[in-house]
């Protein structure tokens, strides 16, 4: 027996962006790749709370949504580097604005999050 995938709701721009950026680490991956951390091991060090497997899955999803690309160098062991596509680059100002909002409301958000855990 197989599991049938349900079609996501894609009724508006928020649905679309949610579908593309859904995932705990995706915005941080895009941000760090933009800052120059391009190798999987670099990204793992920047996001130590994420498993390598989860990061690989989310990087693959970002790649399938054409936000990142990767270069595989023909060396042993294989070397992989990620880069932002122009499409992915267009998200950086938005991610920066979201991060700034979080910084501006840091204490309030921390209090609310800790209260609800």
From TrEMBL:
Query: Which SUPFAM superfamilies has this protein been placed in?
Result: Winged helix' DNA-binding domain
Q: What GO MF annotations does this protein's record show?
A: DNA binding
Q: Which UniProt keywords apply?
A: DNA-binding, Transcription, Transcription regulation
All residue ranges annotated as the HTH hxlR-type domain in the record:
12-110
Answer whether the UniProt record assigns the keyword Nucleotide-binding to this protein: no
Pfam family example for this protein?
HxlR
Gene3D superfamilies named in the record? Winged helix-like DNA-binding domain superfamily/Winged helix DNA-binding domain
Q: Check the record and name the InterPro entries matching this protein.
A: HTH_HxlR (IPR002577), WH-like_DNA-bd_sf (IPR036388), WH_DNA-bd_sf (IPR036390)
Q: Does the keyword DNA-binding apply?
A: yes
Protein name in the entry: Transcriptional regulator
């Amino acid at each position: 027996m197989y599991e049938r995938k349900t079609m996501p709701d894609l009724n508006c721009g928020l649905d679309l962006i949610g579908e593309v950026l859904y995932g705990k680490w995706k915005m941080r991956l895009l941000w760090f790749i933009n800052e120059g951390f391009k190798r999987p091991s670099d990204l793992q060090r920047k996001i130590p709370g994420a498993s390598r497997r989860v990061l690989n899955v989310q990087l693959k999803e970002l790649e399938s949504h054409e936000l990142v690309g990767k270069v595989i160098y023909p060396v042993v062991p294989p070397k992989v580097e990620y880069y932002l596509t122009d499409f992915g680059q267009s998200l950086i100002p938005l991610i920066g604005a979201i991060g700034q909002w979080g910084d501006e409301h840091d204490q309030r958000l921390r209090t609310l999050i800790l209260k609800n855990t």
